[in-house]
């Protein structure tokens, strides 16, 4: 389906109230000359945005003022990933020490920017904190998925899938469970403390690329190459229901604190080349609450803040902070 | 920037392309493989994604008549790190079409095959295109190889003729952000009449035992 036709179809199907909803840019972050953003993540409260930049520097920005809060570099070692703890107290930064083999992880206190924990882990492609900041899930690009204890800097469990690695993971709000979206087409759930498997869902045909727990921990929301948001029972791994399929690949999912909404970031239909489409869905009714698409921008991360979804988008060497409600 | 003709000339000089007549193609390929005699070390892994698709049907003819692109035969053997043939391996491959696009909704350019008693496999396809997004990712074919008693292998095959390597893949392999070794870049043999050129690539796969 042509993307313009798809967009038209969506608009035609939207309830009248949704048509009035739109995104608006609320702040601009000016990047240094010649620097481009390679990856970015929003703190859960929406006050900070961390970027991995083309000059091998991690920069942390205030989304309120657009000011640079901190600049982190480690002797030229390229940053591989960056993640805020859910309470915004910590920032984990993985620096690639031995290419495709080993990373050094630094966990910094965001108030002082002092390193509080540091340990060597596997080559890191993605990471996520548990809600209580005690555990960190790590994955490399293709094979290893592990759970680490932050305080002791010790690996608790290796939960690597049979092949293909994990593309996304999320801890449950109570910290008991970890859900993984795996390259072999499965969404798996593990006990976070031990790595013991809880369930494994095989209803994805194409690889899931994003996964999130609902705030009450009673369901998992996942999506990816199948272009369909699936709501999954974490106990059984079965898909309970789905939201209507969209033209684009699902690249990111966020669930609102009131567990009523899910924000879905879509790529283009058959590649990761374009990331300019964001939809807010009502999780209970499956209704579209807001639909935002702006050609020329690249959405790089967001979070629910109060009554709106705040996200960062790159265009023309500027990072825009946007609000969608 | 090298012109296409210059790239081809350089590839020929470096042995990245072998042009041969039909009747001597296999013998020349065999000679090339024999001359190279790869050590029985595991095939380097390469990332799975994107777009691995479960439930790929058993099929080794991925090309249909009239498909655009240079016809390609992929073949090889599956062995283990002792050099023993692995006769019960299953190989899944997937790739973009000539225009650099994956089939997300169906199973075009996706295939699965069980190797024969000699550990041999072959697929009929076309040389995949570059991604249309101007990324630095080179032309490639994804492989997942599984066999009882062996560690699954996830890797990708790259083509020495890819213009990104400028005829010198050993020197320029890192131009693809996912390539950490030139070992996954294989020579391309061109065979057939001038108006029916066909590419052949051998890719031997070595699995680690569990």
Counted beta strands of chain B: 11
Unreliable parts of chain A: 1-20
Nearest-angstrom radius of gyration of chain A? Answer: 19 Å
Which geometry of chain A do the CA atoms define? globular
Euclidean distance between termini CA atoms of chain B: 46 Å
Compute the CA-based radius of gyration of chain B.
16 Å
Distance between the termini of chain A: 27 Å
The proportion of strand residues of chain B reads 25-35%
Number of helices of chain A: 2
What is the overall pLDDT average of chain A? Answer: 89
Helix content of chain B: 10-25%
Count of strand segments of chain A: 28
Structural class of chain B: alpha/beta
What fraction strand of chain A? over 45%
Q: On the 0-100 scale, what is the average pLDDT of chain B?
A: 85
Name of the CATH superfamily of chain B: Aromatic compound dioxygenase
- What portion of residues of chain A is helical? under 10%
Judging by the overall fold, what is the CATH architecture of chain B? Sandwich
Helix and strand element order of chain B: HEHEEEEEEHEEEE
Q: Which tags fit this structure?
A:
A: 325 residues, mainly beta, 4-stranded antiparallel beta sheet, 2 helices, B: 210 residues, alpha/beta, Protocatechuate 3,4-Dioxygenase, subunit A, 6-stranded mixed beta sheet, 5-stranded mixed beta sheet, 11 strands, 28% strand, globular, disordered N terminus
What does this structure look like?
The complex is a heterodimer of chains A (325) and B (210). With 325 residues, chain A is mainly β. Chain A contains 2 helices and 28 strands. Chain A is globular. With 210 residues, chain B is an alpha/beta fold. In chain B, strands 1, 2, 5, 9, 10 and 11 form a 6-stranded mixed β-sheet that branches. In chain B, strands 4-3-6-7-8 form a 5-stranded mixed β-sheet, with no helix packed on it. In chain B, α3 (169-172) links the parallel β7 and β8 (185-186). Chain B is globular and about 40 Å long.
């Amino acid at each position: 389906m042509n993307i313009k036709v798809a967009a038209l179809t969506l608009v035609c199907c939207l309830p009248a109230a949704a048509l009035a909803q739109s995104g608006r840019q609320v702040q601009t972050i000016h990047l240094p000359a010649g620097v481009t953003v390679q990856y970015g993540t929003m703190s859960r409260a929406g006050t900070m945005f961390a970027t991995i930049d083309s000059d091998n520097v991690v920069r942390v920005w205030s989304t309120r003022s657009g000011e640079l809060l901190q600049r982190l570099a480690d002797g030229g070692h390229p940053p591989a990933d960056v993640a805020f703890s859910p309470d915004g107290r910590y920032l984990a930064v993985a620096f690639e020490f031995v290419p495709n083999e080993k990373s050094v992880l630094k966990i910094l206190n965001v108030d002082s920017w002092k390193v509080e924990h540091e340990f060597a882990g596997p080559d890191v492609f993605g990471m996520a904190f548990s809600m209580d900041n005690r555990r960190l899930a790590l994955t490399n690009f293709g094979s290893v998925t592990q759970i680490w204890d932050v305080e002791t800097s010790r690996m608790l469990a290796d939960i690597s899938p049979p092949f293909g690695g994990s593309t996304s993971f999320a801890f449950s709000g109570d910290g008991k469970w970890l859900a993984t979206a795996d390259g072999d087409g499965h969404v798996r759930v593990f006990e976070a403390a031990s790595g013991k498997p809880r369930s494994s869902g095989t209803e994805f045909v194409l690889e899931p690329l994003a996964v999130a727990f609902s705030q009450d921990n009673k369901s998992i929301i996942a999506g990816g190459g199948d272009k369909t948001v699936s709501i999954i029972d974490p106990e059984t791994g079965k898909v309970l229901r789905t939201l209507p399929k969209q033209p684009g690949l699902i690249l990111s999912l966020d669930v609102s604190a009131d567990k009523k909404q899910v924000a879905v970031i879509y790529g283009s239909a058959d590649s990761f080349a374009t990331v300019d489409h964001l939809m807010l869905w009502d999780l209970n009714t499956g209704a579209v609450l807001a639909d935002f698409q702006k050609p020329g921008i690249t959405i790089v991360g967001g979070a629910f803040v109060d009554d709106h979804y705040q996200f960062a988008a790159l265009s023309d060497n500027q990072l825009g902070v946007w609000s969608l409600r | 920037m090298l012109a296409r003709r210059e790239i081809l000339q350089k590839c020929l000089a470096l042995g990245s392309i072998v042009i041969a007549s039909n009747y001597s193609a296999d013998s020349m390929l065999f000679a090339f493989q024999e001359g190279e005699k790869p050590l029985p070390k595991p095939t380097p892994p390469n990332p799975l994604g994107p777009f691995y698709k479960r439930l790929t049907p058993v099929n080794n003819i991925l090309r249909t008549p009239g498909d655009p692109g240079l016809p390609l035969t992929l073949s090889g053997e599956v062995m283990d790190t002792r050099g023993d043939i692995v006769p019960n391996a299953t190989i899944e491959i997937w790739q973009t079409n000539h225009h650099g696009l994956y089939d997300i909704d169906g199973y075009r350019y996706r295939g699965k095959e069980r190797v024969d008693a000699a550990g041999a496999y072959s697929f009929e396809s076309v040389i995949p295109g570059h991604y249309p997004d101007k990324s630095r990712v080179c032309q490639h074919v994804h492989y997942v190889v599984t066999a009882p008693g062996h560690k699954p292998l996830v890797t990708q095959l790259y083509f020495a003729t890819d213009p990104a390597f400028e005829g010198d893949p050993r020197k320029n392999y890192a131009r693809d952000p996912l390539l950490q070794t030139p070992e996954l870049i294989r020579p391309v043999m061109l065979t057939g009449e001038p108006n029916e050129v066909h590419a052949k690539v051998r890719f031997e796969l070595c699995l680690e035992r569990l």
